[in-house]
Amino acid sequence: MDELLAKATQGVDPDSPGAFFHIFVNLMNMIPWAQLFWWNVVFVAVGALLGWWRGRLMVGIVWALVLGPIGWIIVLLAPKSVKPPPLPR
Protein backbone atom coordinates (compact mmCIF):
# COMPACT_ATOMS: atom_id res chain seq x y z
CA MET A 1 0.00 0.00 0.00
CA ASP A 2 2.88 2.33 0.76
CA GLU A 3 4.28 1.74 -2.74
CA LEU A 4 0.98 2.67 -4.37
CA LEU A 5 0.65 5.75 -2.19
CA ALA A 6 4.22 6.79 -3.04
CA LYS A 7 3.52 6.42 -6.78
CA ALA A 8 0.25 8.35 -6.51
CA THR A 9 1.78 11.24 -4.60
CA GLN A 10 5.02 11.41 -6.60
CA GLY A 11 5.73 15.05 -7.48
CA VAL A 12 2.66 16.34 -5.62
CA ASP A 13 2.63 19.01 -2.95
CA PRO A 14 -0.16 17.89 -0.59
CA ASP A 15 -0.84 21.49 0.47
CA SER A 16 -1.41 22.79 -3.06
CA PRO A 17 -5.00 23.44 -4.23
CA GLY A 18 -4.74 21.01 -7.16
CA ALA A 19 -3.24 18.12 -5.18
CA PHE A 20 -6.36 15.95 -5.39
CA PHE A 21 -6.55 16.28 -9.17
CA HIS A 22 -2.83 15.57 -9.57
CA ILE A 23 -3.05 12.44 -7.39
CA PHE A 24 -6.14 11.31 -9.33
CA VAL A 25 -4.29 11.73 -12.65
CA ASN A 26 -1.32 9.78 -11.27
CA LEU A 27 -3.64 6.92 -10.25
CA MET A 28 -5.38 6.89 -13.64
CA ASN A 29 -2.00 6.72 -15.39
CA MET A 30 -1.26 3.46 -13.53
CA ILE A 31 -4.28 1.68 -15.05
CA PRO A 32 -3.58 -0.48 -18.15
CA TRP A 33 -6.24 1.15 -20.37
CA ALA A 34 -5.26 -0.62 -23.61
CA GLN A 35 -5.61 -4.06 -22.03
CA LEU A 36 -8.95 -3.14 -20.50
CA PHE A 37 -10.20 -1.92 -23.88
CA TRP A 38 -9.21 -5.12 -25.71
CA TRP A 39 -10.67 -7.35 -23.00
CA ASN A 40 -13.94 -5.44 -23.30
CA VAL A 41 -13.90 -5.97 -27.08
CA VAL A 42 -13.46 -9.71 -26.50
CA PHE A 43 -16.31 -9.77 -23.96
CA VAL A 44 -18.67 -7.97 -26.34
CA ALA A 45 -17.69 -10.21 -29.28
CA VAL A 46 -18.40 -13.37 -27.28
CA GLY A 47 -21.63 -11.82 -25.96
CA ALA A 48 -22.69 -11.01 -29.54
CA LEU A 49 -21.92 -14.57 -30.62
CA LEU A 50 -23.92 -16.04 -27.74
CA GLY A 51 -26.76 -13.59 -28.32
CA TRP A 52 -26.85 -14.46 -32.04
CA TRP A 53 -26.89 -18.17 -31.17
CA ARG A 54 -29.81 -17.62 -28.77
CA GLY A 55 -31.67 -15.36 -31.21
CA ARG A 56 -31.11 -12.21 -29.13
CA LEU A 57 -28.13 -10.42 -30.65
CA MET A 58 -28.63 -6.98 -29.08
CA VAL A 59 -29.39 -8.48 -25.67
CA GLY A 60 -26.10 -10.40 -25.83
CA ILE A 61 -24.15 -7.30 -26.79
CA VAL A 62 -25.71 -5.10 -24.11
CA TRP A 63 -25.32 -7.60 -21.27
CA ALA A 64 -21.71 -8.34 -22.26
CA LEU A 65 -20.96 -4.61 -22.48
CA VAL A 66 -22.47 -3.89 -19.08
CA LEU A 67 -21.41 -6.98 -17.09
CA GLY A 68 -18.69 -8.67 -19.15
CA PRO A 69 -18.54 -12.45 -18.71
CA ILE A 70 -21.37 -12.38 -16.15
CA GLY A 71 -23.58 -11.07 -18.97
CA TRP A 72 -22.81 -14.25 -20.91
CA ILE A 73 -24.46 -16.28 -18.16
CA ILE A 74 -27.56 -14.07 -18.29
CA VAL A 75 -27.79 -14.53 -22.06
CA LEU A 76 -27.36 -18.29 -21.77
CA LEU A 77 -30.02 -18.59 -19.04
CA ALA A 78 -32.59 -16.49 -20.91
CA PRO A 79 -35.05 -18.43 -23.07
CA LYS A 80 -34.35 -18.68 -26.77
CA SER A 81 -36.12 -16.19 -28.95
CA VAL A 82 -38.95 -17.75 -30.95
CA LYS A 83 -39.94 -16.16 -34.23
CA PRO A 84 -43.64 -15.23 -34.27
CA PRO A 85 -45.80 -16.99 -36.86
CA PRO A 86 -46.52 -15.01 -40.02
CA LEU A 87 -49.69 -12.93 -40.07
CA PRO A 88 -52.56 -14.36 -42.12
CA ARG A 89 -53.50 -12.43 -45.26
Automatic annotation (TrEMBL):
The chain crosses the membrane at residues 36-53, 60-79. Keywords: Membrane, Transmembrane, Transmembrane helix. This is Uncharacterized protein. The lineage of its organism: Bacteria, Pseudomonadati, Pseudomonadota, Gammaproteobacteria, Lysobacterales.
